[in-house]
User: Fold this.
Amino acid sequence: MPYIDADSHVYEVEETWDHLPEKYRYRRPVPITVPREDAPYMGVDNSFWLVDGKAMQWTWGPGTIQIGCPLTSIHAGMKEFSIGNQSLMDVPARLADLDRAGVDLQVIYSTLLFAPLTDDDAFETALTVSYNRWIEARCAEAPDRLKWSAVLPLREPQEAVKEIYRVKDAGAVSLMCFGTVGERMLHFPEFDPVWAAAEEVDLPIAVHVGWPTGSLRQMCNEHSSSLNVSFTLPLLIGFYSFAGGGILDRFPKLRAIFLEGGCSWLPWYLERMDHYYPVAEFFRSSFGHDPITSVSPENFKDRIYLTSEADETLLPFVLDFLGEDNIMMSEDMPHLEAREGSGEGLGARTDLTDARKEKILWKNAQAFYKLDFAPAARAAAE
Assistant:
């Protein structure tokens, strides 16, 4: 069965920063590798990016995150994928691994930009734009199989608007952000020009799990809480902004996908938002405020999309609840650790019809990303 991987990744390398403006090149991120015997507490992630004199890696203590380590780490060498695959500096190696995984097309997302790299908003924008230009060039080596998502520099909304128009022309298929912009929620008015531009150029918003929120990061002092709390919960905050905070209401042609958080949470959270909708609007009215959305959040289900884990028990229920056209599959290459390939896992399920598998594995992603993909023609070519 054809397979479009709706969300996989690349590890950034030194070349990622080659597109920085001249004034920032002396501040380009530096990869650092520490011999394991000198820092045993770093485990297999014994490398990090140094940005403005700060390490983009905390292996323990408040603020713990594990993010986009340079590919000189022990961990990188342990993966089943080559360094060239992980960095996309060897595109044929990635394509060979796609073939082995049965993936026809893959949409590529960042890794290092899962968390803010610097406190300097303008420098953060420059780093983001440099990444976007670099990933465009990487995917251009195999444009029929590798598609890319542009990262939005939301800390400078007007710069984000400019970047939206640029990456649309450059071939991006979605616009990546996280569930918050630091401590600010996505439905705050200063971001409305960004959503308006995305709607105008018809690029969907891809809200990805990540560590955008400093206060949540500081709550977590080891990897379990980091992955389950500070990494995951911002996705739900972002979902609220789109469905309950008014983004989808104000921009009726905008579509949004929520990536790498599974799908089982959506029925509970959307029903919870509907449960509180009349209560919140009662109080808003009493305070003299207009409704935050013109209708209850459930009305926006047709423009809400998710990726599922292959083994989610509640997947059939979510398909009934949300709709068969709104769930996709993520291979998460080359991040996956201690997990089998998602496409193969979904294909082996006995509680899904072949028609549902077909939609999840490729038809929904093709429609959402508006991809030019002809499975019959590709099969004939092989």
User: Anything to note?
Assistant: The longest helix spans residues 265-286. The chain has one domain: 4-15+82-381. The domain at 4-15+82-381 is CATH 3.20.20.140 (TIM Barrel).
